[in-house]
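Field reference: sequence -> structure
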Amino acid sequence: MIDFKEIELKDKEWADHLLTHSGYQGAEYCFTNLYIWDGIYKSKIGRYKDFLILRTGTEGDYHYLYPPGRGDKREIIDLLINEAESGDYPLSFIGLTRETREELNRLFPNKFRFTPVRDSFDYIYEVEKMISLTGKKLQPKRNHLNYFSTNYKWSYDVLTEKNIDEVLDFNHEWCIRADCSKYETLSWESCAVEKCLANYGRLNLIGGLLRVEGEVVAYTIGETLNTNTFIVHIEKAFPDVRGAYPMINREFLKRNATMFNYVNREDDIGDEGLRKAKESYYPIFMLEKFSAKLF
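Structure field:
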């Protein structure tokens, strides 16, 4: 049996080591996401040899992240099969990509039923394209940027512990304007964002904020996901400040992500507004995700 526990900041060092070794491109394979969303998904973490084991859900309805790490993958999956059988529930994996789906099916032929999970597909973009915004399709984004540059007296600051209180105040105001309490997905996100900001320094994150006339109108937070991909966890702007979203996106990536090929802007959790916003930047590809259930 695997000993599962609450996810703590002290787990970051060993978890990062195993996540980095795997090099998976999915947003689930980032300690920050495991940590800040644990309360929403009722997640627990465990370790078996050099594998990280993440379990979500409640008794009888557990789901496991396809295990990152190194070693005998068949051994760890056999262990999880036994774990599920002892609890009298079917083994279910989340976060599989096409590559890991093929790996699982190769190790256990025709033993799992795979289902695409569209709401969990990650939006992957070329960093250079997100900075330059070249091409006819992205002309509206350039128009918004030009409007912002021409009509606002703006500045960009690195997000630090010294100005994070301003971002917390901004975030509260953003939620009031968006009426977060009325929407389940926004309420979930708000909890995760609060936890992220409260532990910003300890999670070793990178952030930036955009000011107009000295007041914060947008901010964003991200970090390295793997050797060729940067990941953006949070991006917020006041929607009535035209151009604030594309400006914070461009300035942040220009300062922090030019050494990467791709930026993962995570999924849309099934929110139609968020889906439209992410699609409007024309991702180079969608990182498809699948669930797998043992027959």
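Note: The two ends are 21 Å apart (CA to CA).
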